[in-house]
Each structure stands twice: as structure tokens, then as C-alpha cells.
Specification:
Blueprint lengths: L11 H12 L3 H33 L4 H50 L2 H6 L2 H43 L1 H48 L1 H6 L3 H53 L5 H43 L21 E9 L5 E10 L4 E6 L5 H8 L7 E6 L2 E2 L5 H5 L2 E4 L10 H6 L7 H10 L3 H6 L17 H15 L3 E5 L7 H15 L3 E5 L11 E6 L2 E6 L1 H7 L1 H9 L4
Parallel strand pairs: 3-8, 3-9, 6-7, 7-8
Antiparallel strand pairs: 1-2, 1-4, 4-5, 9-10
Helix pairs in contact: 1-9, 2-3, 2-5, 2-9, 3-5, 5-6, 5-9, 6-8, 6-9, 8-9, 13-15, 15-16, 17-18
The structure holds adenosine-5'-triphosphate.
Length: 586
Amino acid sequence: MSDSSTHSTVTTTQVLAWISSLLAHYRLKVAGAIVALLVAAGAWLLLGQGIKLAVDQGFLNDNADMLNKAVLGVLVITAVASLATYVRFYLMTWLGERISADIRMSVFSHLLTLPPSFFAQLRTGEVISRFTSDTTIVQTVVGMSLSMAIRSTITFIGSLVLMTITSPILTLCVLLAVPAVLVPIRLLAPQVRKYARLSQDRVADLGAHIDQSLHEIMTVQAFNAEPLEASQFNASVDAVMTTAQRRIHYRSLLIGLIMLLSLSAIVLIAWFGARQVFSGDMSAGELSAFLFYAVMAGGSVATVSEVIGEVQRGVGASERLLELLATEPAIHSGETDFDNGNTTPPAISFNNVTFQYPGSSCLFNKLNLDVNPGEKVALVGASGAGKTTLFQLLLRFYDVKAGCICLDAEPVTSLSLSSLRSQIAMVSQEPVVFATSVIENIRYGNPLASDEQVKKAAKAAFAHEFIEELEKGYQTQLGERGVRLSGGQKQRIAIARALLADRPVLLLDEATSALDARSEKMVQEALNKLMEGRTTIIIAHRLATVKHVDRIIVMDKGHVVSTGKHDELLENDTLYREYAELQLLS
Ligand SMILES: Nc1ncnc2c1ncn2[C@@H]1O[C@H](COP(=O)(O)OP(=O)(O)OP(=O)(O)O)[C@@H](O)[C@H]1O
């Protein structure tokens, strides 16, 4: 559960500076919106003068001509104000949409640079929530609330100036009332912001829950765990409601108090003004105009108070987005591009590597392991021995604590991440299939490959046949996580992808585990072809698949126990013999 709300390190000023920097890209539109805003506010303020003229010169003096002119003036002002409102509304809403789109793009690009350790701490559902709901809030705030707040502030200042011109005494009374209105804003706004952020955190928990339950729907249903899942989800929904209720409470209190205070002030001022008209110190037109401005000023304060809650909500949402953006990638790219002339595949060496996962005990202590150029090496060992971790370290998903991993003589830390990773193709234990078409799934290995190259790779991976039998062949959509394919079919797609990527280092994580005997044979042949001329490391649980590699490395609890050929190890290594006996291979 993310509960960073109470320890937020982001200030409102930082949020506003961030939003301003985003808006700075659209200076012309922002300027247009501000001009439209000023014109609209100015026109509404002028309306008060029209009213004053209409009352004093028209109604009271029985002057029909003057009345006509004043009414015409009022109509023109209304038209101008309406046009300006259209322009302002259009531009501000556009800016809101644009900014939230920009935020989504930059946050997503940034997330892609963060290492897996970051995602091990933050649930994907929570990240999705930050994307969707937080950016939507920012969009509303920039597109609506902020513009309303600015418009109301301008209207308030303009009204105040015109009120002062109309009647300084009455204005003084209004000014005395202002602090009374500001007190609740000062006291309650931080509470609104705090609970706004908390409720976003709770909504994010919901996202995470949905993501997990639906992702594992088969397990949920197979264990009849629907009631359990539903009740846990209901508890999360209740938590959202409870937090939202607190936010709503403070917001409503804020709005209500401000309404009460500002309207009471206006009534009292109207009473005082009416007495001035009776005593002849003020004309009826002046009082009408003054009250018009006072209502506008009061309305503005009410609007500001209403949207200030919304703006605080936006600040809360922005905080969470800024936090994502501020997360530094724990892995820093080196500068060098890997270049060994590309004639031979690179050697891989782990020299005195010491490593532990964050918060775990030491996994590798001065581990040494060398793989020669073009050599095919199999890693064998009990679950948890550290085989997958070696892959992760080579790909720099994590950095070692001490020691060095090298491609040829080049430490991986000095290579640029993209150059390092472009040397390596990986087929993971659980084949990854994206929710796009078959052709796009294979082309992921090399986005520039032609349709013909994709098909060639699919044929080599023994995938072409079953792909052709799919409803739309290579254009068939595979559904989320490839739900429409069997385990073996998914694996062959992943192998075709690796073939197409055509990289000098190959990492295979028990790539044939999900295949039946017939397809296993086919895939094994494809893999043999794929391994040709590449430095390959295979993680294998089943020894049958690795009997023919150049060298087998037996690992146990983070150590290399022994290395050798299948027959040598059978003879000399007790641990390996045990594995082989278990698998009836000796
Ligand atoms: N992200 C992680 N955070 C903390 N510990 C981890 C993490 N990933 C793996 N480990 C731990 O590191 C050890 C080695 O794991 P690793 O996945 O490398 O083993 P493996 O030999 O590949 O196992 P298997 O054959 O079951 O896949 C295990 O004890 C595991 O619990």
C-alpha cells in the first residue's frame, strides 16, 4: 500500500513550477487564453457601468433614448464577453488535455528506464492508476479549475477597484469582511489536499488489486477464491470511500463556510448602502452597480474557494506523478559502445562477483565463471542456486556489489546499456507474448525486419506451420499475454523473436520446458541452429536438453560446484549424478 502521502517531499511551489514549465511549450495558446480571460472579465465588469447608466439615466430620468443606448451597450458587452469566454474555455481545455498527454508520455518514457528492482516495490496496477486517474485530475485542474481560479481572481480585483470608485466607504466594509472569508480557506485547504492525496493512494490500491486478480484469474477460479478476492476488494473500496468521505467533508465545509460568510457580508453591505441612498449620499444607480460588483466579488471568492479544493487535489495528484518522474534509475548507463569487430561472438566472464538482492542475504560471494567466445554452456543446479540472477546481472538489471562482469575485456558497467543489451537475445522461462498480432510479436526482436524475414525466423523456430493454421495467419491477434496460444506455441514465438533479433549472445532459460516430445525435438533443432556461432548460456532443469552442450556448470547456493561434460560430471560430481538419477538419465 502506498502511503507516502504524509511524507510528501514535493511542495506546491514545485508542482506549480512543473506545470508552468509544461505550459511554457505552448506560450501562444497560454497568451491567447489569458487575453481572452482578461477580455471576458473586463467585459463583465463593464456591465456594471451599463447597469448604473441604465438605472440612473434611463429608468430614473424617464429617458427612453438613453435606456435604449444603455441596453444596446449591455448587449454588445455581453456578446464580447461570451465570445471571449468561448475562446478561453476552448484554449484552457485544450491546454489541460495537452499537458496531461505530455505528462503521460514523459512519465511512461521515464518508467521504461527504471530497473526491475523499482517495479518489484511498486505494483503495476498502482502505476496504471497514477497514469490514468492522476493525469486526469491534472487535466481537469489545468483545463477548468485553474482557469476558473484565475478568472475569479481577476474578476475579484476588478470588482474591488470599481467598487472603490463607486463607493469607498462601502468598499471598506467589504474589505473588513474579506479576512473572515480567508480564514476557513487557510485552515481547511491543507486538509482537503491531504485527503485528496490519500484517496488517490487508495484508488491506486484498487487498481493494483484488479490487476492482480484478473491477471491470475485462472488460479482465483480454480481455488474457488472469488468470494475471498471480492471481500478483499470490497474492503479496499470501503477504504477509498472512507478517505473520500473525509475529503468531501472538508471541501463541503470550506464551500459552505465561504458562502455563508460572503453572502452575509453582502446582505449587511446592501443594508448599509440602502441607508446611504435614503440619506442622499449615494445614487440608486451607484448602489445597483456597487451591489452588482459586490455579488461578482463574492461569487469570485466562492468560486475560488470551490476550485481551490480542486486545485489542491491536482497538487496531490501531481505530487504522485512528480515522484515517479523524480525516481532516479538505479542503473546508470556506461558511455562506450561495444565493438569487437563483430567477427566472433564475445566471451563472457564473471570475475569475483559479489552480489545480494536488496534486503536479502549474500547470494554470490566472489563467484568466477568464464564462457568462451561461441561456447555453449549449460547452468544446472537446484532452485534458488542463482542461475537466473546471473542472466539479470549480465543484462544489468541489477549491479554487482563487487567484482566485474565483462563482455570480452569490456566491463558491462562501462558499456552503454543499449549497446550491451543489443548484444544479447533472451528467451525466458515463461515466454512473453504481447497482445498484438503474431507478426508484431516476432518482429519485436527486430522492428526493421521485413515480413519475409519474420516468416523465415518463424519457419526456423518451427512456428510457421501452426501460425498458418491460425484464423488470420500472421495477422491473428494473440490476446492479452497470448491467452490464445498453447505454452509450446508461445515458446516457439519467443524463439522466432530471438532468431530474428540475431544477436551474438544468447540466454536461454529452460526454453524447451513447455513442449511435447515432438515439438521439443523440432525446437531443439531450431535452437541448435540458433546457437550456431553465438555465445550461449542455457539454464536447464532437465538434463536431457543439455547433454550435448560444450560444458555444463553445476551451481549450488550461489557457488559453482563443478564444471565438465555430461559424462565427466556423471562420473565425478555427486550432485550432478543425483540430478541425473532423478531424471533417469544415468
Ligand atoms: N528480486 C529478488 N529480490 C530478492 N531476492 C531474489 C530476487 N530474485 C531472486 N531472489 C533470490 O535469489 C536467489 C536466487 O534466485 P534465482 O532466481 O537466481 O535462482 P535460480 O537458480 O534461477 O532458481 P530457479 O531454478 O528456481 O529459477 C533465490 O534465493 C531467490 O529467492
